[in-house]
Amino acid sequence: MTATPTSLPAEKAATGLLAHARHIVTENPVTGLSFGLFILFLLAGLVGPHVVPYDPLASDTAAALAPPSAAHWFGTDQLGRDIFSRVVVATRLDMTIAIASVALVFVVGGLAGLAAGYFGGWTDQVVGRICDTIMAFPLFVLAMGIVAALGNTVTNIVLATAIVNFPLYARVARAEANVRRDAGFVQAARLCGNGEWRILLGQIMPNTLPIMMVQVSLTMGYAILNAAGLSFIGLGVRPPTPEWGIMVAEGAAFIVSGEWWIAFFPGVTLMLAVFCFNLLGDGLRDLVDPQRRT
Amino acid sequence: MLGKILKRLGTVVPSLIGVVIVTFLLTRVMPGDPAAYFAGPAATPEAIEEIRRSLGLDRPLLEQFLAYVVDLAQGDLGTSLTTGLPVMHEITTRLPASAELTLLGLIVSMAIALPLGVLAAVRQGSWIDHLSRVIATAGVSLPVFFTGLLLVYVFYFILGWAPAPMGRLDFFFSDPERVTGFFLIDSLLMGDLELFRAAFSQIWLPALTLGIFSLAPITRMTRASMLAVLASDFVRTARANGLPPGKVVITYAFRNALLPIITTLGMVFSFLLGANVLVEKVFAWPGIGSYAVEALIASDFAPVQGFVLAMAILYVLLNLLIDILYGVIDPRVRIEA
């Protein structure tokens, strides 16, 4: 770790942050690359269904199991559906599941953790006990159990992914709120007559946001993996809906006979998405918390 | 030491109670009416009511929970609707297959990750350090079912080094006599080398898949922990006293670096037990993971519940074992107790 002079004037703090962000993106080409990938996935999710060359659900038995070619970049599957189109269209569903579950746990886990760290006492006890109980399970196994119990739907995949991530968010938020509960600005706010919840949400919560945002991008990759894993074993998304995990599962039967492209392309896309979010998380952490740089 | 172990055993109790409550609650939130499900589509309301009474579903929740705990204590996890066999029986007969695979996966992963992490720390900034960093980042991004399929394609379809991913043994062989339930060990106990080779040829690919999956956290932790230890005073002193580098690294540094590595094993097991389910599905491995997946697809809840409970108990016990191991290895922990 090299110490760089960062004595920027206060009024330039905003531009300083931008410059710092640019520095991080350009200094480490990997972070830059992951940012580019992120934009690509975002675009695929937003406009993907409108720009793909084929209908992701249309089968064409004449062209079934065709290897990658100029007409079908990623080849076709056993029903002759274009894999490239299916992979691109699936981006929206996969991203929606991941973003929805992360957003849910960000709000619920974050608030629970903030309350636990700020109020202490029985709130802390209850939240801590819930975290311990969730952590007592292997996480993927618990997610399987939750989806099996609640019912085999996409909403429940979101819910299950959010639940298994709950301890991660609650613990980070708790630690962040705990160190600030008696900080000077909190005491000042209390002296001004603010209510406890107002202090918690107005004064403490904004200060925990940077660290929580890092947590979001670090767990996003895991959320995508978790959702794809669940649909790989046949939970949640149902065929013929294009989704990366289920496409890999469909291609699995053809791997042993050499038709590798059916499972390969959705799998690689899934891997790239997770990779992108993990690297982005590392980059974001460098930005927010330079002391933890590795 | 014994007192400490007993104290640690005491902390297992709340975890187990939490686990049992959660698995019980999972059945209560189950969609639909279990009584109607058991009765079948053609049942009259009276018949459903009758089944509800016989299943005890009309009693208060607390009473049902007590009945569940009593059943558990007697080793009764319910009966599978699809196979008609007790869940407990299925899980105990299938557990060795999963355990053998998971343990071998962990051994494979340690055999690669520990030397790699140590070398990365000793030669910081060299190509091996970069390699370990790439593995650590790429490893956590790889979906384990996808790695498995890639390995099957390369080693079965292209190279032909591995048999088809169809379970623990080829059809030509019959299972070895059950002693430990681990085919590799049982076949050796029988002195049947042919059988051992057959079992090994089936297991090495799924074990490698699991190994690659858990490579990342172990490598990363080994490297970080070795770096911290190598920078410490006693290593500097050992070097200054002219001890050979190998002795400094292995005897002085590595033994101390092991402690944080063992702590991360708890997290690694959480991932491994989950990944095991996916790997079992890819390789048609007859373990408890594929049992649970088959039941999930058939909406057969008792096996899933039994599986979740078994995995959670296993995980709690593994964490206990890791903590005890930690105390055995690190004398300082013993003194503090």
Please give the CATH architecture of the largest domain in chain B: Orthogonal Bundle
Taking all Cα atoms into account, the compactness measure Rg of chain A is: 23 Å
CATH fold-level assignment of chain A: MetI-like fold
So what's the overall shape of chain A?
Answer: elongated
Distance between the termini of chain B: 8 Å
CATH superfamily of the largest domain in chain B: MetI-like
Keywords (chain B): Cell membrane, Membrane, Transmembrane, Transmembrane helix, Transport
Membrane topology (chain B): Multi-pass membrane protein
Domain ABC transmembrane type-1 (chain B): 95-326
Family (chain B): Belongs to the binding-protein-dependent transport system permease family.
Record the SSE blueprint:
The complex is a heterodimer of chains A (294) and B (337).
Chain A: H1 13-27, H2 29-51, H3 83-119, H4 121-135, H5 139-150, H6 154-180, H7 184-191, H8 196-232, H9 244-255, H10 261-288
Helix pairs in contact in A: 1-2, 2-3, 2-10, 3-4, 3-6, 3-8, 4-6, 5-6, 6-8, 7-8, 8-9, 8-10, 9-10
Chain B: H1 2-28, H2 34-39, H3 45-55, H4 61-73, H5 87-122, H6 127-141, H7 144-158, H8 183-189, H9 193-230, H10 233-240, H11 245-282, H12 288-297, H13 301-329, H14 331-336
Helix pairs in contact in B: 1-13, 5-6, 5-9, 5-11, 6-9, 7-9, 7-11, 8-9, 9-11, 10-11, 11-12, 11-13, 12-13
